Amino acid sequence: MLRFCGKTIIERQIELYKSVGIVDIVIVRGYAAEKINYDNVKYFLNEDFATTNMVESLMAARAEFNDDIIVSYSDILFTHDMLSVMVNLHNDFSVAVDDKWKSYWLKRYGKIDFDTESLVIAFPFDISPQTSPKRRLKRSSFRLADGKSNMEMLY
Fold this sequence. Notes:
Blueprint: E1 3-4, E2 7-8, H1 9-19, E3 26-29, E4 42-45, H2 54-59, H3 80-88, E5 93-98, H4 101-109, E6 130-131, E7 137-142, H5 147-154
């Protein structure tokens, strides 16, 4: 488990979620599932984690997609301020993107075309980027015509 300042990143995330009033927390376990055990958290399991990807893990918890949802990776650090902004956005769909990710990735791997996810925003969505005053973090919010039914069609 990745640790940062004496706590696992997941533990830090759970504390941040609770600090902004989110108490309905769900974790999808896969690799090292037996090491991921926190109180007052609901768990799902992606038994095929070794041969599938993060989307498949996300879909293991699709029964929980009945209300507003925040999806976060278990190895990403974020701040209380960023989470507060995300919680208070009133968009159908919002994404937080660190615009300095390429420099971090270059330091880590020496290249940027390795083990990366793609974020593609296609028009004609209503895109409204904003900049956080505390950190150079771009939040792009846009409206999807039928995002939920499209997700359901895939799985």
